[in-house]
Amino acid sequence: MKKWKWKIALSALSLSLVLPLSAGAAGKFSDVGPRFEKEITYLAMRNVAKGYTNGTFGVNATVSRGEAVVMIVRELGIRWDGAKDPGFTDFKKGDGFYTEVAEAVEHGVIQGKVAKDGTRYFDPSGSLTRAEMAIILARAYDIPLDRRDIPFKDVSSTTTGKKEIDALFNGGISFGYENLYFKPYAKITRQEFAGFLGRTVNKEFNPMYMEYVHYDPDTLQRVKTTWLTEQQLNAMETEMIALINNARIKKGYEPIVLNERLQDMAGLKIRAMAKYPSDERVMDIYKFYEDKYGEKLNGDYSERYANGSVESALQRILSQAINEPYLYDASRKEMGVGVAQEMDGSFTWVISLLSR
């Protein structure tokens, strides 16, 4: 994206992020409930999201493709800069949203649709789908697409927006529905789009960054913590793998080779268990592996769980290994490690080991 065109606008935006909400703002729309109240209020106060003349926001109304683009253009602070005609067959100069859509195309936020005859159209009044929402948010805000694959049951490798959907999950913007469903082709409502946009631009509304107060399981002291990013969790996993292998070497065993599939699966499994503890599909590791990779998991597989920081979890794992030497076993050749944060901010681990 060509970010330099709105560099000044973004500087002003960075200042607005720290301004407090006014006390009366929460009641601005009569139909806004607690689900996305803070996000909608925040966007409304910055004139990004607007309601209707009857005092409602229209929370359950579907958001059109044109409305979604307008909100993003307003939020980014893009101003009319003489963008060329985007060339959509159903959209011409003078139509509603024309200037916003033209600038959005110019800046790479949207691309439109392609008809069977090869012509491009925008469908401004069409309802935005959840997959399309993921795509335009990822494009507009350069959300990284190279994060961990999420095994949504209704999102395959051929689903339009697959990488963007995964990126929103990993970024704490949209987690989908219970039991790992995302509903990519479902229409998105105005409150949902405003909520996801709010989470994208202001980390105070992003549950991956919410602060929690809890009791540390090791010190039993009341502490405050924050959600770690995906990169930070990956770094913890890498550290744990190195420490486990150091412990094996000290006992005279060769280090265990990292199996990328086991590693990927361990991370997905423990995060899914933290969010959906009753999902039987996640609990059955052989079914989980087969669903994800399309082949059976061969070999003698075992896994162990632990809680706490890297050091605390390692000590628990090593203590277990004294009485049950699964870790100090020469037949264990491959390994994967996953870590997740529970809703109280504490860490839970899974150690996956495989013998061939």
Mean pLDDT: 80
Low-confidence stretches: 1-27, 210-215, 278-282
Overall geometry comes to elongated
Number of strands: 8
Order of helices and strands: HHHHEEHHHEEHEHHHEHEE
Helix content: 25-40%
Beta-strand content bin: 5-15%
Note the gap between the termini: 47 Å
Q: Major sheet: size, sense and barrel closure?
A: 4 strands, mixed
Enumerate how many helices there are, as a single number.
12
Number of domains: 2
Radius of gyration: 24 Å
Briefly note the structural class of the backbone. alpha+beta
Strand order of the largest sheet: 5-7-8-6
Topology of this protein?
Elements: H1 7-16, H2 37-45, H3 65-76, H4 98-106, E1 113-114, E2 120-121, H5 130-140, H6 162-170, H7 190-201, E3 211-215, E4 222-226, H8 230-250, E5 257-258, H9 260-275, H10 280-283, H11 285-293, E6 300-307, H12 310-323, E7 332-341, E8 347-355
Parallel strand pairs: 5-7
Antiparallel strand pairs: 1-2, 3-4, 6-8, 7-8
Helix pairs in contact: 2-7, 3-4, 3-5, 5-6, 8-12
Description:
With 356 residues, the chain is of the alpha+beta class. It folds into two domains: 37-205, no CATH class; 211-355, Pathogenesis-related Protein p14a, CATH 3.40.33.10. It contains twelve helices and eight strands. The strands form three sheets. Strands 5-7-8-6 form a four-stranded mixed beta sheet, with helices on both faces. Strands 1-2 form a two-stranded antiparallel sheet. Strand 3 and strand 4 form a beta hairpin. Helix 3 (65-76) packs parallel to helix 5 (130-140), helix 5 (130-140) crosses helix 6 (162-170) and helix 8 packs parallel to helix 12 (310-323). The protein is elongated, with a radius of gyration of 24 Å. The two termini are 47 Å apart.
